[in-house]
Each structure stands twice: as structure tokens, then as C-alpha cells.
Specification:
Elements: E1 16-20, H1 29-42, E2 47-51, H2 57-61, H3 73-78, H4 83-86, E3 88-89, E4 95-98, H5 107-110, H6 120-125, E5 134-138, H7 145-153, E6 156-162, H8 171-184, E7 190-197, H9 204-216, H10 230-234, H11 242-245, H12 250-264, H13 267-270, H14 291-294, E8 310-311, E9 323-324, H15 335-342
Parallel strand pairs: 1-5, 1-6, 2-4, 2-5, 6-7
Antiparallel strand pairs: 3-4, 8-9
This protein binds adenosine-5'-triphosphate and magnesium ion.
Length: about 350
């Protein structure tokens, strides 16, 4: 997996459509989608993030104001607007977004009587996906029709799991739904991997959960757990992926490693059709921590190439107002907090 220094990351021969899904709320789906998309874009891939959550966290997290766009995902799925009209540039070159809106909350119900209601997203993406190397679909925290649309459209699924006690609860249900989708709507769907999020090396519980998840899904969990990071939680309020906001923070480095692994591992190598009958609820496992989680050194990674990155603030979205990332002034943060984050 080691690459010669500064060698460009490979781009896939065919576009990869990746649903980021877990019906548990707040586990890091949007953060994972935006962070991976940001790094892959910086490393030269053309990346689209389709925001399929009425909360529009991925949209705002990429600096796009849902109130200022002409076409959103609700209009595309429910009103038949064209996907190509919904694609918005972001402040990061190569990174695009199809914005969501709160209206999407009604789509779960409005789509019920629709013809081929599970395939609306798949149809809408036809003809557009080929323009991109990666299309991430940020799912809402439910297993409803929107998530089913994402699973029906995607070739791969990425499941973020938060390193906390109830981490595996509900996962069995998610996997059963994935199995249902593979057996009926989309036999091609593969589990690309599990991303462990909000890992806290100071707590035994985090290590225990990470160990438990790795035990249940051998070969399916990315090698690095994403640590809890103040910088990751700040980035969305500045409308920037972490790769722009603070590329050297611990969370950014972890997501870069995961993006690197994704880019260098063809989906077939990592994923297999999901077929996991039952996933037990996390029980308190032996109090043994994983050295890998605690002392991660990203040895495999080539250094960050200084990208030509432009950052455009949310308003106004035009060429003239573009500023380089060097112009960006980080917000005032307590010095000890920032220090801790990079340690
Ligand atoms: N590694 C992390 N360290 C610290 N904060 C994080 C981390 N990952 C995510 N967060 C923060 O946790 C909250 C939940 O994350 P996020 O929105 O990505 O989860 P989600 O699964 O998309 O949530 P939802 O289910 O509501 O869509 C956000 O405030 C986010 O900024
Ligand atoms: Mg989200």
C-alpha cells in the first residue's frame, strides 16, 4: 500500500457511487461523506456529494447555502427536476454538491404512491454519475425510502460506527435492509467498509468497541479510527471540509488515511456482498485495548501535496470573491484545545 512520495492517487476507471449510511443519528455520516469527498477532491478526483438528508448538514458543511440554490434534491426526486441542474460547485476545486433542503422531510411520504419510488435517485443519477470519479450519498438517520433510494442507486455502502456503547445496536437491522436491497433492487451493492468514528483513546470503552467491531467484521473496517476532534466538529460551521479547514489536525489525517485506502482499494477487493445474518449488541468485552487505535502513525501515507485550492465563502458564490486557502483565518480557539487536537 506504500506509494512513492507524491505519486498521484489513482482515480477509478468507472465512477464509484458510495452510500454513507447508518440509521443511528449523529454517528458521523455527514462528517465522513464530506471529509472523504474533500480529500479525494484535493488529490485530484472529481467528487460529487448528494445530500439525501433533510437536515442538509453535508450541504452546509461544504459551504453551500440551501436557500440560495435553484434546484435541490427534493425537486429532483419528487418534482422530476434534472440532477444536472442541482449540481453546485463548492469552494473546493473538483468538489460538487447536490444540496438538500428541509422539504425533503416530506419526500418519504410524498414518494409512497410514486411509480418505482425506490429507484428515483438511481434514475436521476443516470447520465450524471459518469462525470464524477466518486459520488457520495449522505443518508438520513433512518431506514426509510430515502435510504432505500441511496442503497438502490449505490454500488457501495460505507457505514460509520461511533465508538460508543450502543454502537452495534441497530446494525443488524441495517444489514438486513442491505440484504433486502441486494436480493431485490440492487444485487451489485457491496459493503466497502466500516469507518470507526469519534474514537477517544483515553477511554477503554472506545478501544473495546473498536475491537468488538473489528472482531465482527474482519477485513471490513478501515485501519484507522477517526478520533474525536474539535476541529472536525468546527469545520461545518465554516462551510469547509476538514481537508481545507485544518488539514493537519488529527481528524483530518485520519480521514485522509481512509480516503487513501479507499482510492487504492478497488471496491471488489474490500467489499463482498453483504451477508451477515445477525450482529450481536455490543457486550462489555475484555478490557484489552488495540494498540493500533491508540498509537496510529500514518506511515503509509505520502505527504500532503500542496494543492491549488480555492475557498469561496457561502455568499456570494462567484469567481471574484474566491480566496486562496492561505487567506483563510482560522477562528479563535482556545490554544490548549487546538494543541490537544493535534497531539
Ligand atoms: N470525529 C469527530 N470528532 C468530533 N466531533 C465529530 C466527529 N465526527 C462528527 N462529529 C460531530 O458530531 C456531530 C454528528 O456528526 P455528523 O453530523 O457527521 O453525524 P451524522 O451521522 O451525519 O448525523 P445525522 O444522523 O443527524 O445525520 C456533528 O456535530 C459533527 O460535527
Ligand atoms: Mg448527517
Amino acid at each position: 500500500m506504500t506509494q512513492p512520495e507524491n505519486s498521484p492517487w489513482p482515480t477509478p476507471t468507472a465512477s464509484r457511487l458510495i452510500a454513507v449510511a447508518n440509521q443511528k443519528g449523529g454517528v458521523g455520516k455527514s462528517t465522513t461523506a464530506v471529509s472523504l469527498a474533500g480529500w479525494l477532491a484535493i488529490e485530484g478526483a472529481r467528487v460529487l456529494v448528494v445530500d439525501l438528508d433533510p437536515q442538509a448538514n453535508a450541504t452546509t458543511g461544504m459551504g453551500v447555502d440551501p436557500r440560495r440554490v435553484s434546484t435541490n434534491i427534493y425537486q429532483i426526486l419528487v418534482e422530476g427536476a434534472l440532477m444536472e441542474d442541482g449540481i453546485e460547485p463548492t469552494g473546493l476545486k473538483n468538489l460538487y454538491c447536490v444540496p438538500s433542503t428541509i422539504d425533503l422531510a416530506g419526500a418519504e411520504i410524498e414518494l409512497v404512491p410514486a411509480f418505482s419510488r425506490e429507484l428515483k435517485l438511481q434514475k436521476a443519477l443516470e447520465g450524471v454519475e459518469g462525470e464524477f470519479d466518486y459520488v457520495f450519498i449522505d443518508c438520513p438517520p433512518s431506514l426509510g425510502l430515502l435510504t432505500i433510494n441511496a442503497l438502490a442507486a449505490a454500488g457501495e455502502i460505507l457505514v460509520p460506527i461511533q465508538c460508543e456503547y450502543y454502537a452495534l445496536e441497530g446494525l443488524g437491522q441495517l444489514l438486513r435492509n442491505i440484504n433486502l436491497v441486494t436480493s431485490s433492487l440492487n444485487p451489485e451493492l457491496r459493503l466497502t467498509g466500516i469507518v470507526l468514528t469519534m474514537f477517544d483513546p483515553r477511554t477503554k470503552l472506545s478501544s473495546q468497541v473498536a475491537q468488538e467491531v473489528r472482531g465482527h467484521f474482519p477485513g471490513k473496517v478501515f485501519s484507522v479510527s477517526v478520533p474525536r476532534s474539535v476541529r472536525l466538529s468546527e469545520a461545518p460551521s465554516f462551510g469547509q471540509p476538514i481537508a481545507l479547514y485544518d488539514p493537519n489536525s488529527k481528524g483530518a489525517v485520519a480521514y485522509r488515511q481512509i480516503a487513501y485506502e479507499m482510492a487504492h482499494q478497488p471496491p471488489a477487493a474490500m467489499g463482498s456482498a453483504v451477508n451477515i445474518e445477525s450482529v450481536p449488541i455490543a457486550s462489555p468485552p475484555a478490557a484489552e485495548s488495540l494498540a493500533r487505535e491508540v498509537a496510529f502513525e500514518p506511515n503509509d501515507l505520502p505527504p500532503i501535496q500542496q494543492p491549488v485550492v480555492t475557498y469561496q465563502p457561502v455568499e456570494p458564490m462567484n469567481e471574484e470573491s474566491a480566496a486562496t486557502s492561505e487567506d483563510w483565518t482560522p477562528p479563535a480557539t482556545a490554544p490548549d484545545e487546538r494543541e490537544g487536537d493535534r497531539s
